[in-house]
Amino acid sequence: MHLRFREKQSFYHSLGQLLRSGVTFPAALQSLSRSSRGGLRQLLKQLNQAITGGLTVAEAFAAQRPMVSEMEAGVVAAVERAGRLDYGLAQLAEYFGALDAARAGVIKKAAYPVFVLHFGIFALGIQTLVTSGLPAYLREIGSVFAVLYSAALVIVLAATLLKDLAATSPTVDSLLRLIPVIGRIRTNFAVSRFCATYEMQLGAGVNVMDGLKSAARAARSGLISSSVKRVIPEVLAGGQVGPLLGVSQAFPEETIRGISVGEETGKLDEELNRLAAEHQRAGIAALDTLAEWLPRMIYLATCIYIGYRVVMWYGGYLQQIQQLTDGI
């Protein structure tokens, strides 16, 4: 079971507000349960059971995978150690709020062209309705919708599979990064999650190696995970993280520069915060670009379909005329 971005944004915001006001964590969970339902209510129930069973807040969240992502579990673990749980929850609320707003923009801009595509399918089948009757009309548009929705389902399943594979496979991650716009979205959000989690881990007093490992898991990027795994022995030997990560192609140049400068100036936490925010903004901007182009692609598909149907209709019409002419 998965929660929508809006549900997570509301959950983390409300939980953080209750904790900030002095409410204990178990009491906050019970309070939120009374006004929640569905998947969120189930999550709250499971968290409460875990806390009652003696687990820490971080352990309780970590036990809720996959409903709670690696990034969420890592952030909660870091801020609990640092005694900044309300701060971490506010950061998560902001993150999921931004994702929800971006996704809503994509859906809003794609709604009209999707309607036009469906209307075109119904409208262009009217000739069949008139000439062959309702059963033939329903069979025709039914077959078109079956192909359309089957293709959409295949795309969604393939995208989900590739996304999960890219979280652990550097090869798949590299291939996805080559896709225009999609690659930028993946890269920016992965780097943003890495920087945000790494900063919170360090702020909580976690050692550099464990912080890097947690940040790599939160990034859900095969390239980043592979890069971090490769540099761990060199970091243990005294090497600086920034230059070592810069050897690979997992991180943009400006990210490596920011981490390196932060290490040299002793302001790594500030640099990581800045980089996390910048990459999040860049990821949302790329999502906006996708929102602009997705409707145009749907319009193009609609025009191609309508053009095909018109050509087929005229082809059949001209063939009937030819047959009548030949019969005279």
Counting DSSP H or I runs of 4 or more residues, the number of helices is 15
Described by its quaternary structure, the protein is single chain
User: What spatial form do the alpha-carbon principal axes imply?
Assistant: elongated
What share of residues is helical? over 70%
The count of β-strands is 0
Strand % is: under 5%
CATH topology of the domain at 5-93: Receptor-associated Protein
Structural class based on helices, strands and sheet pairing: mainly alpha
At CATH's second level, what is the architecture of the domain at 5-93? Up-down Bundle
Protein model, in words:
The structure is a single chain. Helix 9 crosses helix 12. The protein has about 325 residues and is mainly alpha-helical. The protein has a domain at about 5-95: Receptor-associated Protein. It has 15 helices and no strands.
Question: What layout of secondary structure does this protein have?
Answer:
Elements: H1 5-20, H2 25-33, H3 38-52, H4 57-62, H5 70-82, H6 85-124, H7 126-132, H8 134-166, H9 170-177, H10 182-203, H11 208-219, H12 222-236, H13 241-245, H14 253-265, H15 268-327
Helix pairs in contact: 1-2, 1-6, 2-3, 5-6, 5-10, 5-11, 6-15, 7-8, 8-9, 9-12, 10-11, 10-15, 11-12, 14-15
Question: Quick summary of this structure?
Answer:
The protein is mainly α and 328 residues long. The chain is built from 15 helices and no strands.
